[in-house]
Amino acid sequence: MIIIDVEASGVEYNLHSIVSVGALDLDHPERRFYEECRVWDGAHIDDQALEVNGFTREEITDPTKESENDLAHHFIDWAMPTYDRTLAGQNVSFDRDFIKAAAQRAGHTEFPFAYRTIDSHTLCWMHMVKRGLIPPVDPEKHRSALNLDAVLNYCGIPAEPEPHNALTGALCHAEVISRLLYDKKLLPEFEQFDIPWFK
Question: What residues make up the domain containing 83?
Answer without folding.
Answer: 2-198
